[in-house]
Amino acid sequence: MTLSFAFSRRFLLTGAVALTAVGTALPIFAQDVQKGGTLVMASLQKPRHLNAAVQSGLATAVPAAQIFATLLRYGADFEPQPYLAESWEFSDDNTVLTLKLHSGATFHDGQPITATDVIWSLDVAKQNHPFSSMLEPVEAFGAPDPQTVVIRMKQPHPAILLVLSSALTPVLPKHVFDDGQDIKSNPKNNLPIGSGPFKVTAFEPGQHIILERYDGFFLEGKPYLDRIIIRQYQDANSGVLALESGEAQIFPLLDSTRLIRRLEKSGTMTVTDQGYAGIGPVNWLAFNTKNSALSDLRVRQAMAYAIDRNFVTKALHSGLSKPAIEPVVQDSIFFAPDVESYDFDLDKAKALLAEAGYGEGGNTLQLRIDYIPDIEEQQRAVAEYIKAALAKAGVEVTVRASPDFPTWAQRISSYDFDMTMDQVFNWGDPVIGVNRTYLCSNIREGIIWSNTQQYCNETVDRLLNQAGVEPDLAKRKDLYAQAFRQITADIPIHFINQVPYHTVYSQAVQNPPVSIWGAMGPMDEVWLKQ
Amino acid sequence: MTAVTKTSVPAARGPMVEAWGIFRRSPSAMLGLALLAVVILMTFAGPFLYGVDPFEIVWAPLTPPGQEAAIPLGTDNLGRDILAGLIEGGSATLAVGFAAALITMLIGVMVGAYAGFYGGVVDDVLMRFTEFFQVLPPLLFAMVVVTLFQPTLVNVALAIGIVSWPQTARLTRSEFRRIRTLEYVSAMRAIGAGDSNIIWRVILPNALPPLIVSATLTIGMAILFEAGLSFLGLSDPNVMSWGLMIGSGREYLLDAWWVVTLPGAMIFLTVLGVSLVGDGLNDAFNPRLRER
Description:
The complex is a heterodimer.
Chain A: H1 2-12, H2 15-30, E1 38-43, H3 58-67, E2 72-74, E3 80-82, E4 85-90, E5 96-101, H4 115-128, E6 138-145, E7 148-153, H5 160-163, H6 174-177, E8 198-204, E9 208-213, E10 227-232, H7 236-244, E11 250-254, H8 257-266, E12 269-272, E13 281-287, H9 297-306, H10 309-316, H11 346-355, E14 365-370, H12 376-392, E15 395-400, H13 405-413, E16 419-425, H14 430-433, H15 435-438, H16 458-468, H17 473-490, E17 493-498, E18 502-506, E19 509-510, E20 527-528
Parallel strand pairs in A: 1-10, 14-15, 14-16
Antiparallel strand pairs in A: 2-3, 4-5, 5-7, 6-7, 8-9, 9-10, 11-18, 12-18, 13-16, 13-17, 19-20
Helix pairs in contact in A: 1-2, 9-11, 16-17
Chain B: H1 2-8, H2 15-25, H3 27-49, H4 82-118, H5 120-134, H6 138-148, H7 153-179, H8 183-190, H9 195-231, H10 242-249, H11 257-285
Helix pairs in contact in B: 2-11, 3-4, 3-11, 4-5, 4-7, 4-9, 4-10, 4-11, 5-7, 6-7, 7-9, 9-10, 9-11, 10-11
């Protein structure tokens, strides 16, 4: 029965996509799936609500990917797979995308999922989602019949397929949410009626989110689990203790390398760094390029040469984090290896500072460094290391602690900083997660994770904008490579390391979420071995 | 009767000399004093003898004590010398302790003195004000103060002072209420002494012994407080203190005991020293224990 299902799905698909989809799906059927059971997921995230159409971030995305279906989904590579859309095709000029919906799909209240719901949901995301660039090129959505969705764009927008996947554009029931209330503050966002493999039955902030199997899910036989409980813990330590005691079976987004090493050593759990290619989390040092000293390119380069990335990744992060040298992570398809990486060279740092008039014979350079509070290993420890490392180059660094995240965000977004540690996610495609940091047009005071460095280079803008509308993947990669070379040469940001997110799970968990979206993807294929 | 007193107590001994005599005979008090002396000596002479910058990364992170001869007490999570941190951190920690105790005494004695001396409406107003501060959970309130402003050493000392003064105020008030009815106070009033003269020059010196004891204990409490705030991440990241060492090392407690244990032990010894001295002073100033 399982085989016939796999084949029937294959024939419905179009083109090469079909082969990849089945290719990644096959291992699932290689062993007998045991249905049922409750998966308890340990989480440190505190979602405000569960409607990912109007709220970005991991906290909402993880439960939302279970509650809502999206048009497409992704496996472990960056190839789109069918989900609510069974097939899709672009027009010859790449500006019109037509998608055919899975038939018989229903919302958790039993109402059919139609193209009208889909285009309404996409429009909600276009109007409200914080990542305004992801649907910005869309001119119009159309629903010629209940099973067909048409997306018409002003120009080619190759990122659109990724945008239609998990965590970014959930399909909402129009008949429930289109009630005249502001969707961002709609109380239904707490226990939304969804379209995905699990329906939410309880959401107690600070306690747990309970997701129950939706029997009417449109992918036959799925999900395998009866229930997912996302249980919130106060800190990583208690989450790991819960795993070790068997209270929880899976813990995604764990970034404490000390705990990861401990779990690796104990050998009772499986530890993987797969599942984070889509998020693409980068830990970096951002410069305020309007600061009088830091506006000098030589000073910024000197800072970079004085910081030893190897010390951070090997010593501070137990060898578990990978160095970051450019805007995107190494797992991104747009990663370009040939950029200036500013490998540790203290003499060069001192020489550059002397050239700029600091150090011996000149003034002592004094700078302040901020960091995101409550992220110990990735932010505070690195900031403290930078203080010590720059002291060796003759730079006096004062560490400024922020009592909470809003204080930090307020300081940075109002440009009240010299340099700051920061963590920014790629979100799968540079159009979503990279452009915002570098485009001149995105220097927007008061908005965190915009271009708070106030960096502006028209060449970079041109390259990023061209790459955003280039349908040919090879050409697109080349344009991004050029942009990344220019950005690293101008160094508004010194890239330090990739956040070493890991997923830890017990031996019972099969088909753990290791797609590019990890736990932010649907977990309909996860099952528990009894 | 006066003659008897004169023969039994030589007139030359002042109250402080007498107190020292009692203090000196208490082994625990002298142990406390010795502990304090060692700590103070270490923090003041240490930098001259062991001139390592506590913020400098000197060796591999989390090197255990004794492994490298040059770093006798090992390194913390960033590879900074723990011994250098203990030496340098002592002065900051002690400074916070003393400064907080000073603030506590200043506010507490001021409020308590006026409330106790005048009584009536002044007492009511000042004591309701004191109670307002007393009902706030001290740690939580200190956290709020430090969070609202910057976690700098000065603010931490201020925060601790602000949350600790009500007890001193209560103590001062009760002492003042007792003493203001005594004959010598009435005598001063009779010869025309002004209120502030009586408060500060007559009553306060006589109320001092229990206040000194309380101040000593406040120093110990303030040091613990600073450590507590640091443990919660609310300490000045630019000034090495024992609290900061504990705060940044607590994540590594399971892998590297020395990062937290060593500064913790220093805090323990210092607070123990301060408390023993405080107890010794209490005994020394207690008239019932004299001449035993």
